[in-house]
Amino acid sequence: MENNINYNIVILGGGQAAAHAATTIRQEDESSSLAIITNENYLPYERPPLSKSFLLNKVKESDFLFYNEDHYKNLNIDILKNEEVINIDFEKKLLESKNKKITYTKLLIATGCKNRSLDLENVNSDDVYYLRDINESIQIKNKLDLAKNILIIGGGFIGLEIASSANQLGKNVDVIELADSLMGRIVPKEIATIVKNKHQKNGVNVHLNTKIISTTKIDDGYEINLSDNSLVKCDMIIVGIGAMPNIDIFKDSPLKIDNGILTDQNNKTSIENVFAAGDVANFFHPLYEENIRLESWKHAQNHGVAAGKNITGIKTEYKEIPWMWSDQYDLNLQLTGRCDQYDSFIKRGKDENEGIIYFFIKNNKIVGACGLGIGGKIGKDIRLAGMLSEKKVEIEEDFLSDPSSKLNKLLKK
Amino acid sequence: MSSENKQWIEVGNTDQIDMEDLIRFDHEGKTYAIYHIEDGFYATDGICTHEAVHLEEGIVMDDEIECPMHQGIFNIKTGKAMGPPVCIDLKTYQVKVEENKIYIEI
After folding, report:
1. A99 to chain B nearest CA, in Å?
2. What chain B residue is nearest to A20 in terms of C-alpha separation?
3. What's the pLDDT tens digit per position in B26-41?
4. What is the Cα–Cα distance from A347 to A188, expressed in whole angstroms?
5. What ipTM did this prediction achieve?
6. Could you tell me whether strands A236-239 and A128-129 are parallel, antiparallel, or unpaired per DSSP bridges?
7. What average pLDDT does the structure give for chain B?
8. In the β-sheet with A323-328, what is the strand arrangement from edge to edge?
9. Which of A403, A409, A406 is nearest to A348 (CA)?
């Protein structure tokens, strides 16, 4: 392929938002030249299996591509793999990698997030594993084959999903978390405690309110002193302490950035003909009347679809209700709407078998919800809670708290 | 199973399924989902093709069923998987209603 290439539309980043944006663009525009530039060696793929079914050897790489090679060929979408863009010039509409100069007319930035990293004293950084992409998942999987004792730093969704997988593979697992509850502030403590108990029942050691005091290299791994006075021996360390938007190459550019790339409700950034979608975008949400940034599967998909439409000139306001899930063992946890801005909550259901849901209430309306259940137990009510929050339906506590009342009746009011 | 071996099995009464809703029907170790939508009654396999979850807890919108676990969507009439995360179609079954009783052909 030539070193100087021009495309009408370039998508920077090769994840979920990119795959769906490119496909959507082609549905609306058959003729514009179109490329996805990715620093990975893979076609866009699903990330949820990376911490779960892929680690458990239930699926292989080719099982979770969004689309196969033929899809992109048939739609005349070029995928430039292994291209690390190191410089961008918005004035010249130019992207530069080590070997290529790529010019564009319209640009979609979908570079996603990168993991926060942690420096550990006396620990070789090669011995510390992170999970975001498929190569990292393969590395974790290979190491898990050999390792016996796994230390996971960070009791968030990724850390706990890997803990669940490693436990199912028969490994000894310790999870340490700085806070007094798993999964951050937005998951109600009662629900976080059920998840913690599940891990502990399966043999995972969960250390809350705990930090690392010291680390010592020993023959086949490390000895870690923890602030709860325990000493953990491990031959593998995995860090899952959150992510931040992947925006390094824009730092000295005029692109407006504040916790991600700022966009309006139509994926438009501060620069004309430059759009952003997915985890990297801090977008204006019309329902909430402020900018929010989301890191979730459905958002990456649908924000990409909206971007594809907006790029081709079909004005599309993006106002999806946030929604995400986490699967650990047979538990399915879901969050919808806004789970950090409420006056009170109403609880429905008593445990994971019945399905337990906290509805977050503001001005007598649902603004968000968090639920936990076995299998798909709480999915329907979480989905309906999202719809009720969108429609701003007034609710009654007695009705909402009764597990036998059907929430879809409120929608029809 | 060849078509000669198929038979009509009674599922229940029409008033057991609200409009835009579904019920689960178990028969000989298999689970089916029976839907009531504007155009009538329909039946598919009752387990999502993605992660083996019962669709009975799912949500019916127009002629689509959304899985409660990961919001994968299938067309109720054709069983077609409508996009990620689901990619394998649901099997569908013939349905008939006689004297307010629902039957499926399996």
Report:
1. 34
2. B84
3. 999 999 999 999 999 9
4. 10
5. 0.76
6. parallel
7. 91
8. A323-328, A331-337, A365-374, A356-362, A344-348
9. A403
Shortest CA distance from B48: residue in chain A: A376
Amino acid at A52: K
By DSSP bridging, strand A77-80 and strand A34-37 are parallel
pTM over the 0.95 mark: no
pLDDT of residue A411: 83
Query: B51-77: per-residue pLDDT in tens?
Result: 778 899 899 989 999 988 888 899 999
Q: How far is A376 from chain B (nearest CA, A)?
A: 4
State the pLDDT at residue B86: 80
Residue in A46, A17, A45, A48 with CA at minimum distance from that of residue A325 = A48
- Note the pLDDT of residue B68: 86
Task: Say if residue B85 is preceded by a cis peptide, omega within 30 of 0.
Answer: yes
Chain centre to alpha carbon of residue A104: 28
> DSSP letter string over A337-404?
E-SSS-SEEEEE-SSTTT-EEEEEEETTEEEEEEEEEETTTTHHHHHHHHHHHHHT-B--HHHHH-TT
Whether chain B has a CB inside 8 Å of the CB on A71: the answer is no
Closest residue on chain A to B65 (Cα)? A380
Phi/psi zone of residue A126: left (φ > 0), alpha (ψ -120 to 50 degrees), beta? alpha
In this predicted structure, what is the pLDDT of residue A413? 64
Question: Domain-by-domain residue ranges, chain B?
Answer: 3-105
Q: What stretches in chain A show pLDDT beneath 50? A: none
Q: What is the DSSP string of A155-194?
A: -SHHHHHHHHHHHHTT-EEEEE-SSSSTTTTTS-HHHHHH
Residue B53: predicted pLDDT: 84
Q: Which CATH superfamily is domain B3-105 in?
A: Rieske [2Fe-2S] iron-sulphur domain (2.102.10.10)
